[in-house]
Specification:
Elements lengths: L7 E4 L5 E7 L4 E5 L5 E5 L3 E3 L57 E8 L10 E7 L4 E9 L5 E9 L3 E8 L8 E10 L10 E7 L21 E7 L12 H11 L14 E5 L2 H4 L8 H21 L4 E5 L6 H13 L4 E4 L2 H4 L3 E5 L2
Helix pairs in contact: 3-4
Length: 360
């Protein structure tokens, strides 16, 4: 059955119907009923109706309210349709749900295959999931070779909601991709403010060709690959304990204005600044590739030395920038040092611009 957004449809295998508000995938549409609820329905189980010939779905949600008659009744059909003369639609108040007073947040990206029998070769639907007590405004993009963001999708989502962004083909995963997700949290009541999030996710093709990468989750009937973008359950510094001064400092780092750090090195922990002006006297005239090569050479040399010296932890300060250096550092750790653990360094000390490597 061919239908498009805005069509009025009736369900074939059950009573009711509504308006097609969006496509969830190639085979399923979301139909909004007269109470404002979105119902997922296979396209094969809906039929488009002619509004002039079928008044069953006439409501304040879909069509303009008719003018009340002198008897106080609302005329839903033409003068010839006498069977509707006594039919009156009750007034329905639109009541917006009040967001929870709790302050947990959990935002995820999900890749859901069309063909769950063969997910490793299937096209993938990209979803964003807001499993939070907050509403969010989000933007999803992908880094290009020119270090620019290619927009993929954006929008505003209510709490406890998921939304399909686009469909990705297997060609989209023919090489390593770095996705960027930006998030702003808010509520429709007094709320504890959270700093905006901007997260880079490195997606390797191998992750999407292994069948066992697709797991059963509470969010979908089909197995899916899911990445956590931001969550309040991480054992990092609680947002409520971050001072205004520390937040201003982190925002400066977002603009790649580095704080004055007192670097210290001990057998317990070593700190290395990978910014190019800390490594060479003059970087003028160097290409981005040459700069990255020098930074990664310092990273590798320092890490090998720390391993030999039996240093317990080492912090690499790479800044925020466009995320290229950070991604290269973490990719090298995953590929060449799989036994080492790493994570974001302390937010209070380094803002968003450092990676902690745990050597023992």
């Amino acid at each position: 059955m061919n239908c498009k957004i805005g069509d009025k449809v009736r369900f074939l295998n059950s009573t009711g119907g509504g308006i097609v508000v969006r496509f969830l995938n190639k085979n399923i549409v979301a139909v909004q009923d007269e109470d404002g609820f979105d119902i997922p329905v296979p396209i094969s189980e809906v039929v488009v109706i002619d509004e002039k010939k079928d008044s069953a779905f006439a409501s304040s949600s879909y069509i303009q309210k008719p003018t009340p008659s002198s008897t106080g009744k609302q005329d839903l059909a033409s003068e010839d349709d006498e069977e509707f003369d006594d039919f009156v639609i009750p007034e329905r108040k639109e009541v917006e749900a009040i967001d929870p007073s709790t302050n947990n947040y959990n935002v995820l990206l999900a890749f859901v295959p069309f063909n769950k029998q063969n997910p490793a070769n299937s096209e993938l639907d990209l979803y964003i999931i807001n499993d939070s007590d907050y509403r969010i405004a989000y933007s999803v993009g992908k880094w290009t070779d020119k270090e620019l963001l290619q927009p993929i999708g954006s929008g505003i989502m209510e709490s406890d909601y998921k939304e399909r962004i686009c469909t990705l083909t297997r060609d989209d995963f023919s090489k390593l991709q770095v996705f960027n997700v930006s998030i702003i949290y808010f509520k429709n009541r007094d709320f504890l403010p959270l700093p905006p999030e901007q997260v880079n996710l490195e997606l390797t093709p191998l992750k999407f060709v292994k069948a066992n990468s697709f797991k059963e989750t509470e969010y979908f009937e089909e197995p899916a690959v899911i990445f956590t973008v931001a969550t309040s359950s991480k054992p990092n510094t609680p947002v409520s304990s971050i001072t205004k001064k520390e937040l201003e400092q982190s925002l400066k780092e977002k603009k790649d204005i580095r704080p004055k750090l007192n670097l210290k090195s001990t057998t317990e922990q070593e700190e290395i600044d990978l910014h190019i002006d800390e490594l060479v006297d003059n970087s003028e005239g160097m290409s981005n590739g040459e700069i990255l090569e020098i930074q990664m050479a310092r990273f590798t040399t320092t890490l090998e030395g720390a391993i030999r010296a039996k240093t317990k932890r080492i912090v690499f300060i790479h800044g925020v920038g466009n995320g290229k250096l950070k991604n290269e550092v973490r990719k090298t750790l995953e590929r060449s040092y799989p036994k080492l653990k790493f994570q974001d360094a302390s937010f209070k000390e380094y803002g968003y611009g450092a990676t902690l490597v745990i050597l023992k």
